[in-house]
Design brief:
There is one protein chain. This protein is of the alpha/beta class. The protein folds into two domains: 220 residues, Spore Coat Polysaccharide Biosynthesis Protein SpsA, Chain A (Alpha-Beta Complex), CATH 3.90.550.10; 188 residues, UDP N-Acetylglucosamine Acyltransferase, domain 1, CATH 2.160.10.10. It is built from nine helices and 39 strands. The strands form six sheets. Strands 13, 14, 16, 17, 19, 20, 22, 23, 25, 26, 28, 30, 33 and 36 form a 14-stranded parallel β-sheet that branches. Strands 12-15-18-21-24-27-29-31-34-37-39 form an eleven-stranded parallel β-sheet, with helices on one face. A seven-stranded mixed β-sheet has the order 5-4-1-6-10-7-11. A hairpin with a 2-residue loop joins strand 2 and strand 3. The longest helix has 21 residues. The termini are far apart. The mean pLDDT is 94.
């Protein structure tokens, strides 16, 4: 059971904190995926605040995930009770997780579940020791070290606030000891809410043991409550991803400045220079070099390709042995076949460029299909928008487009044709022909002499003489 109905007030956001992006996934989805990877049979997510957004963030098509609705914000205990009917026929242990634990590892959940079963206690929880426990519930123990109760910060005394062992919002409970005891909890606290943590004291009063699994790495089991903790969780996941990739044979020159989302795939012998950002569902092949400051989102990059520094690539597919950049911008639906070249300050959008074709400088290619071994000169523009709709340009195999050419779509340049530099092409160009569209050059000899320094001086002298006469 994942609790995802809260307001998340400390995030100071119009969106639920659980839908905020953490290393490529909504925060709550990290928790769902960790639970699934740990082998849980079924997941119930309790939603309430901004329920539709949270439901979409979790994913609505997974048959192993169901949703319960908390109709009012009356605390974590009330949230758990909101899911009772979803587990009406269930017998066994229930793992209860807060939805703001994006750094949680599946193997931690597996070890915790094993600990719970071996403890013999009806309820177990995860704790951690932190230097700054503000905002977390404190673990109150008896003189012999047993867990006595959990006190929320708003209800804690000054002495209790000094305790550094905190509740991490991770529980495992035998469902037979969940519903009836929790219904006995009362909202007699500062928040006027029903706390799930009250279950500890209730079971203790009934004579049952409550087991505590103290996790040695607090960073992994701390919830995200504000923007600082969101940044810390993102750093932790990026660092974890970088470490895993380096172990698998990827060179990362500076892991501290390299940001790689959790679902990104990177092949062996790839080199990532400082400041590289790989986001979303990006897949990088083997032997790729990605230059400093480059940003790639939801894209595929083929083996042996080199991206020079400061390229931006989004929702594109780059083939094998291509060369991109520096300072290139590949916008969505760009497809480059193998050995294509996109150079500095070239922008593309909705194009396919064939094998071995190149646009090396200062060019915009939008809504275009470019064949094999074509050369696109510097300053070329496909004029794809007529003010109402986007139109396509087709450049066939082995075409040469001269510098500073405008191709006004819809237009087709057929195989092997040449377009002269400085042309504006508005009509289709036949195969193997030369198209030139420019004004006729006119030369006026000695015209510039009128503006030379000597001519200007002579004009000033003539004016002075006229005035003196």
């Amino acid at each position: 059971m994942i609790l995802a109905a809260g307001l998340g007030k400390r995030m100071l956001s119009q969106s639920s904190k659980l839908v905020h992006n953490v290393a490529g996934r909504p925060m709550v989805r990290h928790v769902v995926e960790a639970a699934k990877a740990a082998g849980v049979a079924r997941t119930v997510v309790v939603i309430g605040n901004q329920a539709d957004d949270v439901r979409r963030a979790v994913g609505e098509n997974d048959k192993r995930v169901g949703f319960a609705y908390q109709d009012a914000q009356r605390g974590t205990g009330h949230a758990v009770l909101s899911a009772e009917r979803h587990l009406a026929e269930y017998e066994g242990d229930v793992l209860i997780l807060n939805g703001d634990l994006p750094v949680l590892r599946p193997d931690t959940l597996t070890r915790f579940a094993d600990f719970h079963r071996s403890s013999g206690a009806p309820l177990s929880l995860v704790t951690a020791a932190v230097e700054s426990p503000a905002g977390y519930g404190r673990i109150i123990r008896t003189y012999n070290g047993d867990v006595s109760r959990i006190v929320e910060e708003a209800d804690a005394t000054a002495e209790e606030r000094a305790i550094k062992e905190i509740n991490c919002g991770i529980y495992c409970v035998d469902v037979a000891w969940l519903w009836d005891p929790l219904k006995r909890a009362r909202a007699d606290n500062a928040q006027r809410e029903i706390y799930l943590t009250d279950l500890v004291e209730i079971l203790r009063r009934d004579g049952h043991k409550v087991a505590a699994y103290r996790h040695p790495e607090a960073e992994e089991v701390l919830g995200v409550n504000d923007r600082r903790e969101l940044a810390a969780a993102t750093r932790a996941l990026h660092r974890r991803k970088a470490n895993a990739l380096m172990v698998s044979g990827v060179t990362i020159l500076d892991p501290e400045t390299t940001y790689i989302d959790v679902d990104v795939k990177v092949g062996q012998d790839t080199i990532l220079e400082p400041g590289v950002m790989l986001f979303g569902a990006t897949e990088i092949g083997r032997g790729v070099t990605i230059g400093a400051g480059s940003r790639i989102t939801d894209s595929v990059v083929g083996d042996g390709t080199a991206l020079l520094p400061y390229c931006v690539v989004a929702s594109s597919r780059i083939g094998r042995a291509c060369r991109i950049g520096p300072f290139a911008h590949l916008r969505p639906d760009t497809q480059l076949d193998e050995e294509a070249r996109i150079g500095n300050f070239v922008e593309t959008k909705k194009i396919r460029m064939g094998q071995g074709s190149k646009a090396n400088h200062l060019t915009y290619l939008g809504d275009a299909e470019i064949g094999k071994h074509a050369n696109i000169g510097a300053g070329t523009i496909t004029c794809n928008y007529d003010g109402v709709q986007k139109l396509r340009t087709i450049i066939e195999d082995e075409v040469f487009i001269g510098s500073d050419t405008q191709l006004v779509a819809p237009v087709r340049v057929r195989r092997g044709a040449y377009v002269g530099a400085g042309s504006t092409i508005t009509k289709d160009v036949p195969p193997y022909s030369l198209a030139i569209s420019r004004a006729q050059q006119v030369v006026k000899e000695d015209w510039a002499k009128r503006f030379s320094p000597a001519a200007r001086e002579k004009k000033r002298d003539k004016g002075k003489n006229r005035g003196g006469g």
